[in-house]
Known about the structure:
Layout: H1 3-23, H2 25-28, H3 60-95, H4 102-112, H5 119-128, H6 132-159, H7 162-169, H8 174-210, H9 222-229, H10 238-286
Amino acid sequence: xxxxxxxxxxxxxxxxxxxxxxxxxxxxxxxxxxxxxxxxxxxxxxxxxxxxxxxxxxxxxxxxxxxxxxxxxxxxxxxxxxxxxxxxxxxxxxxxxxxxxxxxxxxxxxxxxxxxxxxxxxxxxxxxxxxxxxxxxxxxxxxxxxxxxxxxxxxxxxxxxxxxxxxxxxxxxxxxxxxxxxxxxxxxxxxxxxxxxxxxxxxxxxxxxxxxxxxxxxxxxxxxxxxxxxxxxxxxxxxxxxxxxxxxxxxxxxxxxxxxxxxxxxxxxxxxxxxxxxxxxxxxxxx
Length: 287
């Protein structure tokens, strides 16, 4: 087994460990992640408290697992919502399936990219208040434009290809062309952009939580755990180091998955490009 494969196996193992711990945290730890413990504060890692306790006596291990469940869960929901809306609207506007809606969709898409990704969630949460729903919706609205404009531009480029014109001339409707012929060509782009936006969502959620925005205490997130432990880092390093490692490893894992998928699809695209072009040109010539 070469070094690259061993590295990939270790990353997948870390992902599985994160998922298992996040899903079954209630069964793994008896300590409530939000309730103070009537015991020593800032206690070092021990047999009872695997990762020690924080300044309120709360178990760092149970809080870290709950924070993993919450942070990754919110990021997944936000990215899935943004991906679905951005991809669907991008294809509709790019192929001009509904001409009367296209100007409105383009206008909303322009608004979504005017504000920085970190600023728009802050504005939305400030208006609608803290909470998981507000965090998911604000993150989804702030990143859906990334999907929309990329898919919109690629759809417009595909619209002029010979196999698309052939499908339309053979009687396919605009909806059918978009669903059966354009969407399959866009899937690699959508998946790669999803990994980028997922990493972005993790970072923004953690940053807002570090600032005390989005998820109200005492509910733990990686960012809030780092903020709570920062004043005590010299005497209780475990309150900051472990959530920081979880955040860094998650972003590294997502980056590695995205990079590996990109290299794989580039190799596959190079191999099959000529064959696909010949097939599409033959289909267009047949019409």
